[in-house]
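Q: What structure does this chain adopt?
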Amino acid sequence: MSPWLLALVVAWVIGFQWLFFQQSLQDPDIPRTDLWLMLADEILGVESAGSETAATAAGPEFLSQRVPIFIGALCLLGLALAHGWLLDEAFLSGLSLTGTERFVTAAGSGLGLLSTVTLVSGLAGHLNCTVLIVPSVASAILALVMRLRRRSFPGVLSPQLAMNNEREPRWIPVLVCLIGIPFLVYLFLGAVSPPTDFDVREYHLQGPKEWFQEGRISYLRHNVYTSFPFLSEMLCLAGMVVANDWWTGALTGQVLLAVFQLLTSLAVYSTGRRWFGGTVGWLSLLIYLTTPWTLRISLISYAEGALTFYLMAALMLSMILVRQPQGQVRSRCQMVVGLLAGSAMASKYTGLIQVIIPVALSWVISSWRMSCAIDVSDDRVRMRRELCREGLIFAAGVFVAIGPWLVKNCVETGNPVFPMAYSVFGGTEWNESLNERWKRAHGAPEHSLERMPQHFLDAAVRNKWTSSLLFGLGLPSVLLWRRRLAIRVIVLTAAWGFFTWWALTHRIDRFWIPMIPLLSLGAGSVWLLSPHRSWRWLLLTTILASTTFNVRFCTLSLVGFHVDLMDLDEARQMTIRSDIQVLNRELSRDSRVLMVGEAEVFDAEFPLLYNTVFDDSVFEEIAKAEHSGPVEGPVEMKSAEAIRAELQSRGVTHVLVNWKEILRYRLPGSYGYSEFVQPSRFQTLLEQGVLTEPDCLLRADWELMSEMERGVVREWQGWELLVRGTEFRSVLLYRVH
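A:
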């Protein structure tokens, strides 16, 4: 590289770091420079380092609470590895892979199959340990038979890895391990943290909890989100089955989901080592692992952790196969690539556009270019026929992973990708009104090209949980475009990921998490831009400084609720809302609560009825008179006797109304909520003797609410019933007479 171009890269790296650390975090508004000052004070001993977790009982004596959870997660990982071993023996045995590459593909594909086994057993109504264990034992036996039958064949040669002429520093792997191993311990301790996120407590864990309690997987028409493909959630359900308890099992599943972050780190290292050398592999691993998003996604049971891994794993294996000569080995391996790519979509629908399409395109384009370079027409035709065969095998692998979810939805709703693509497939459990609300809520607010730089800065600089290294070092890797084929694949895949995030989603920041391992590889690869010592030392200094900042940042509560070695029982109570705690403590076993406007119900230990904002209101079904007018016109209620009879037939003893949540949904630009639900309805039922005078479980200060919020409330029929002086009664509990 020419000196002037290297000087521009140096200026970019320094300038980007300055810009990044000059920004302030939002919510709360804390300048990153203040965090640097805090870190400096701790180094100098001015302040004591430590987590911001609230003072509570904590210490090594509480490790015993975590032992069953980690044992359960290890058992499930063992069951998954048995499936992965079989896949490795059946499809990858002739492929030259390193130990880490083989472990990553086996563990990842095995976890995908374990999820599918859980789904099938749940649909059959047999959620028990035996049904989970027997298929894994069968896989292990078949894999062992295949291994023994192949013992007479010569061993596979070691894979060809990237070789650099220069001597790679031996201290870098040692340094990465000294930082990375304690960080991994901290990450897995965090995975045992009780869930606090709304989506997690609404459906990521609530869906598996309901299926575990029911003993089978059934269609939950009150929770549309449980119709999503649930690969990672099935692992939480498997954890509940193994633990025979929904609460302990949820934490067991969270630990197993955190394994995806470990596997992604190994995939990043393996890819960097194979294509760029060992040093790049270690640096890329360090950059990925210590990015705050990696820890955050381990504290929260989102599907992005699995989606990120399957993108990285599928791309890793696909890049290896492109250089593999055509033949039976390469064709066979496409099954595993398809399985990994399909598992991404089985984790989240966006896996179709973020993983399956780019992986398939990169393989097709690379292979087609190779076929075009062949001079003999017969050989070219034969090669293209082989490509078609490989494509069919890849598609078969994709279907094995995502097919069961598509079939399940098709049987339950008539739409294989329910609730998506309603205009294409329709769906018996959906309608045009719900579809319009859904699209409005889950689409980008605008597609202005003029605002693209702002969206880029939001992701690259202003995002709270990103790293200054991802874009600060990742973008200069484009200069290796001509020198390294792998860089072209990585850069194009990352660019495609960000384009689809910008164009096809509602731009929630966690939706671009799958690009982080690709950016980490790009950031690590800039080690190869120049062998000059000054450049290398600048790069290492930048990486270590940012890593120090990220590691300290990850100990703050800004990343998420991390229990560390806290008493788990006490930590659990800390995360449960006070009104739910009251109901858990005071309701009798024969009580059943109708939750109106409330769907964050994972912590509830009592029987209940509820619906999410995108499902038909259960209260409306119970109370609304049949053949009444449209929403815009007068809507009548059933008679008091009919409503009481309906409540009793469903076993409802209490009705909880969360007006704060209903207000959030009805604010301008939000999802909307059934207009049938009004304060006056409940007052009418109270006057008719169906309900008793309510207890107020939660309150808000009416004067501290925004003018917009108060304006929306004033539009409700009977809103005055919710305001007492300066008090807004946000959560009310009625008893059924």
